[in-house]
Each structure stands twice: as structure tokens, then as C-alpha cells.
Amino acid sequence: MGIPSFYKWLVSRYPNIVVKALPPQDQEHNSLLLPNPNGFEFDNLYLDLNSIIHPCFHPEDPSNPIQPTTFDQVYSAVFDYIDHLFSIVRPRKLVFMAVDGVGPRANMNQQRGRRYRSARDNEIAEEMENCLRKQFEAAGKQLLPNSESELLDSSIITPGTEFMFELSKKLQQYVTSRMETCPGWKEIKVVLSDANVPGEGEHKIMSFIRHQRSLADYNPNTRHCLYGLDADLIILALATHEVHFSILREDAGVREEQPMCLSASKSSLSTVETKSFKSRGGFKDVKVVEEQAITEKPASFIRKAHQFLHVWILREYLEVDMRIPDPPENFKYDVDRVVDDFVFICSFLGNDFLPRMPTLEAHEGALDLLMTVYKEHFRILGGYLVDMQRVQDSNSAFIELKRVEKFILEVGKFEDKIFNKRSQLRDRKIKQIAAYAVAENEDLLPEILKDRSSTSIGIPSSSEAQILKNTIDFKFKLRACIRKKGDHFRNGDLGEDKVRLGNEGWKKRYYQEKFSAETPSEMEVKRKDIVQKYTEGLLWVLEYYYSGVPSWSWYYPYHYGPFASDLKGLSQVKVKFQKGSPFKPFEQLMAILPPQSSTTLRKPYQKLMTDEQSNIIDLFPMDFEIDMNEKRFAWQGICKLPFVDEQRLLDEVHKVEKELQAHETERNKQTADRLFVRRSSLPEGLLVSLVSQGSPSMLNIASCGIRGFVHSGQETWSSTMDRPILSLSLHASQEIKYTSRPLAGTTFLDKTITEADIEATQL
Predict the structure, then answer these.
(1) What is the rounded distance in angstroms from the CA atom of residue 323 to the CA atom of residue 342?
(2) Contact of 414 with 369, CB cutoff 8 Å
(3) Which of 167, 192, 202, 433 has a CB 3.0–4.6 Å from the CB of 492, allowing a cystine?
(4) Which whole-number Å values give the CA distances from 396 to 344, 387, 723, in the listed order?
């Protein structure tokens, strides 16, 4: 998820960081060997696969009723999408595919909230769908009937489920096939980090990059391209200090004309064909007469255009935009220290691990405020906020907490102005709501039933082509209905504002409503604990971004963040993390899934979530509060779920774990990355060592240009040594030396950004 509105702010303030990615004109595999038509080449392509899996699982194109209903259809769409991205980037050396594994506890709370909210939203959507379907039937508009689907619950996109376990097998087959048959993949090494490898996908990618940078013969001019949709990928790319780095992402506002699937059938618009297909949500097998081209693959959807975000240009912008107007004496401006400080101050806007401060909203210009305070008060602060060169030094601090406290308290001085302006905007919204109420005096469903197509209501439509059109119309209207239902602004339902930020006494009311603290002494005790936990979170996030997971068990134990003005005493906080270990996949499923998704687990696990006699039934509420917290859209509300008591949960889970069958035990275990390499590319000595292994001892593979150790796993090598593509278990080196600046020998491109490219900030 990352920082809300961050990407929009970034491309608005620094427009030259983004360029359009040219769509591949020739889908033939041989064309992948030609120079990249975008004008720049890449060595390594990193894929955050969850950013691909989700749109293939539930494509957002209501104009195409042919939606996926089976696992295999989703897998096929995923592979087609990877092919498409590969043809855009055309990597020359390596592809790293990362699926989200079990994440740190700090992220599980947000995952839990999202899945519980999704379960509730699905129940509401089902009710609305049934109601709308009845409206269509009453109007004589026949629809495709319902049938079964394997894809009714998107929570199966979680480590430990059958869906994810089978996806790993299919990905291994896909990689082997591509390396054996596709010329563009001939010289490529592939690393697959599937859902059984602990860690979030993007952070597994960053860990891999950090390890490769520590190789003695690492090429500092390696050209990286990372595909993903989360805004925090940009922050993570900055934190690597790799200069030649680009982010590839979808351009949400532009669609290409090609169908999603590379192998999609092409039929003339004037040709009438009859096809049998399945559709998600589930429609039975139906033969339809199609009057326009529809792909043969149900998982297909219209492909969006893509764009590159060049991190080296963003570094140029930051170097210019964050220059210090009144620096301390003997101060040396260091763009890498500035980049690290920028990464750090972005943490105050909230992320997947810490809630945002109520003071700061990205869409209100919070980053402009943070950067302005940073520059104008730099002399008072005394220097940079963080020194990430020390992140691995246990004898010195990598964050200057005294400076951080001064900085954030200066930001807090703007709170009254921010809240007053926000209050004025709220009053304006209330007036607009009143106008909406007069103009919209109809029930929700009847309103959206105003026909979008040319078919007349009341006239029976029985032709198969008309049924298809009706179904498309139905999907458009259902989506509009659901969106409107979730828009509290249009519904005139902003709720009661009990805190009233900007009005006298707002801080007291905040602690009463959000933290149940009534008396001044209770509020001060709560404030101090929040400062302690929030400061821990700031350090946890920073270390996570630069060095890896500092603690698997740490989490921020509140649903809300502090005010900037309340962080007094931050500099006195002492922090020491306990590393711990990640959950097993089934343990995480228990920690984040709602009871409605319990069927993804075995019966003994299900009972822990649904049986009233369960010792931990209180951890799985069917009903819970969603605090809209002055937000417009339902998805922005805060799910006030109880935080999972880790020890209680694990004690009960361990009791039933022994009932797992062999294949379920495989789904529940932690594994290592897999390296796919062409047998002919391995040094003879390494190959001999692999073939002669009597046990899975570790072999250093640095001679292949990858830092780490491999072993042959459990395969019988006498039967696999002749295969052209080898699959090896890849383990990272434990000790690496991290440096938070470009490596010696880095070639910098000519700078193109000047002060004229930066607009003055208006606070």
C-alpha cells in the first residue's frame, strides 16, 4: 500500500521523473534480443508478483464478462502479464520474481484489517448484486446465470493457501519453459522467491540487491528495473543508493488497445462467432453470439499503458529541492545524506507499519511542509537527521533523535493552522452535501438502473447476444452502485465529528475518543507510551528499509498515530529490538484471516476461528467498528479490530498442527529462494561439486555473479544432471557490509534538473 497520495504528489512536483514506456510492437520472442525501443537497456528485472496476481485474480474491466473462475485461468494470465513486462523491459542478465511471504508482525495488523474489511464489503456487495439482479429481471432484462467459482475469496492470495502453493509450482514450470524455449531468456538467470520464503515481496527484492552490492566484483553500473504498484517502492529504490534504477508501473489513466493475453484470439468485429465460456462471480457455461472480439482466455482484460519512473532523476530533483538556504558553519552538502533524510521524513506520513499522524495528510501538502521545515530549520537542528552508514554499527546510533525531536516539534507548530483549514473544508463539504441531498432524492439502486444501453426496459431480451450485453450493463451498474455506497461524501454521511480538530479542546477530545483516556494524568501516561511506541516504529521502519527486518515480532499497538506536537520526549526513548522469527504460513493465516475465510484452512484450524468453545474465539470477531475518522471513502476507515495476542494464538495453533497431512505440512513450511540457471553457464568445478553432493551442503556461487550459497536440494542428481535448466536452492550470505551511497566506479549521467525546474512551495 505504502504512503497514500505519495505517487501523485511526486509526479506533480517532479514531472520529469516519469516517461512513457513504449508498448512492445512485436510479440515474437526473437524480438526480445533487439535493442530496447525505449532507448535505454536494463540488466535486471525485479517483479513484485503480488502487483500482478491481484489484477489477474479480479480484473477491473466490467465491459468484459469473461472473468476468471479457476486457479489455472489466473495462473495463465499471470504468465501472460510477465511475458508482457519482460518484452517492455528486455532484461539482459537476471529476473527476480518475488511473491509476498509471511510478513513481519508490524505489517500483519494492516493485512488483518484489509481482509476483515474485504469480507464485510463482499457481504454488502453480494446483497447489492442480488437486489440489482432482481431489478433487471423485473425489467425483463435476462442475465447470464450464476455458477460456481474457485475465486470468490481474494484472501486466498496469502501464503499457506492451496492457491499460492500451486502458483509456486506453476511459476517454476513457467520459468523452466521460458529458459528452454525463448531466445530472450537464453542468457537470463532467474531467482524465484515464492510465498513460502518469509518476507514481503518488495523487501525480499531489496535484500537481494543489498547482498549483490556487497560482491567484490559487483558492477556499480548495473541497470535495475522494478515492477510494482506500491508507492513505497520508490522510497525503497532511493534507499538502495543504486543510481541506475527505474520503477515500471501502470499508468492508471491510460489504456492500450491490445488484449491482456499475448495469445488472445483475434476475430473481426463484423464476424459473429459462438463461444462457450465461464465467467467470474460465477456464471455457468453459456454459448453466446459475440458481435465484437472477445479473447478466448477468461482471465484476459484490457492492458493498461505503463510508465518508467527514473530514480536517478528523482535524486537530481531532491539534490536541488532540498538545498539548505542557511547551513551551519563548515557544513558539507551531501546528496546521499539528503536522500536518506527524505526517506526518513516520509515515515511521518504513515506506511504499512505505522498509522499516519493526524497532523499530516499527503494530499494537503504535508510533504511540502516537512521539506520546508527541514530546510529552513536545518541550522537549528544541527545537521542531518540520520546517518545510514551506521545502520549496522551496534555501538553507535544511526538516527539523531535530538534533531528529530526538534524537527517534528517545529512541524507541530503548524497544527492549529492545518486543523483550522481542514475544519473550513469540512464545513464546505457539509454545504455541498446539503445540495446533493436536494438533487438526489432517489434510492440508490433505482437511480443506477437508468439504462446505460439502448435496450428498452420492459421489453424481454432473449437473444444470446442481448444477454451478453445485459450482463455487461449489469456489471457496470453494480460497480457504480458499490462505489457510490462507499462514498460517504455523496451519501451525505460524514458521521459525527467528535474530535473537531481545529476547535478549542481538540487534543483532549482526541485522547478521549481515540485512546479512551479521560483525565489529564491518564492522557499524559498514554501520550508517553505512544511516544515510546511511535519512536520505536520510526526506527523499526528505517532499519527495515535499509538493512532488513530488525524484529519479526514488534508492532505498533495502537490504531492511531500521535500529533506532531505531542512527540516531546522522543529524544529520550531507548530502543532495543528482539529479532525473533517469522510465523509459519498457517500461523499467519490464523492471525490475519476473518472467520468468513476460514475454509482456506483445515477443519481443526477452522474450529479455532468459528467454534464458540474455542479458547481464542475472541480474536475473530464477526462484528467490529470501522472508524471513518473524517475520511470520505469507506476503504479509508480504520478497522478497530483487537490486536492478536501472539502467544495465545500460537499455543492453540500448535495443538492442532500435528493433524496436518503431508501435503499440508509442505504448504506450512518455510523454504529458500530458487535459482534457475542454464547448466552450460555453470563453471565446471561448481557443476561437478553439485553433481557429486551426497548431502545438501552449501556451495558458494559467487563465480556465477550472484552472492550466496546453493545446494541441490532433495533431487536425485543422477536423474537430473542432464537437464539444460537447473533449479537450485539459493541462500543469502549472512554477513554483508552495507553502504548508503553509490559504490566506487558508479557512472553518473549528465544532470538535467536545475532550480528552474522546482516550483516555490506555498504553505
Answers:
(1) 12
(2) yes
(3) 433
(4) 18, 10, 50
Cα–chain center distance at 750: 33
CA–CA dist 137, 583 (Å, integer): 49
> What does each C-alpha distance from 422 to 71, 89, 428 come to in angstroms?
46, 43, 10
The three three-digit cell numbers of residue 286, written as one number: 453459456
Look up residue 375 and give its three cell numbers: 530546510
* 529-558: pLDDT as tens digits: 999 999 999 999 999 999 999 999 999 999
Cα–Cα distance for residue pair 260/52, rounded to 1 Å: 12
Integer angstrom CA distances of residue 234 from 116, 224, 241, 253, 690: 28, 13, 12, 19, 38
C-alpha cell of residue 465: 447476444
Backbone φ and ψ of 18, nearest 5° = -110, 135
Q: Classify burial at 351, counting beta carbons within 10 Å of its beta carbon; exposed 0-12, middle 13-18, buried 19 or more.
A: buried
Q: How far apart are CA 58 and CA 466, in angstroms?
A: 24
Instruction: Name the phi and psi angles at 677, rounded to 5.
Output: -140, 145
The answer to whether 660 touches 683, Cβ cutoff 8 Å, is no
Q: What is the mean pLDDT of residues 669-690?
A: 82
First to last CA, the chain: 27
For residue range 358-389, what is the model confidence (pLDDT) as tens digits?
Answer: 999 988 899 999 999 999 999 999 999 999 98
Interacting residues of 496 by C-beta distance below 8 A, sequence separation 6+: none
**Domain architecture of the chain: domains with CATH:** 6-128+148-261+303-315 (3.40.50.12390), 325-419+501-572 (no CATH), 585-630+644-659 (no CATH)
> Is residue 45 within 8 Å of residue 36, measured between CB atoms?
no
The pairing of beta strand 699-700 with beta strand 673-678: unpaired
At 118-155, the pLDDT tens digits run 999 888 888 999 999 999 989 999 988 877 899 989 99
* 246, containing H or E segment: strand 245-259
Q: Measured between alpha carbons, how far is 10 from 14 in angstroms, rounded to an integer?
A: 6
Count of CA atoms in the C-beta half-sphere (13 A) of 29: 13
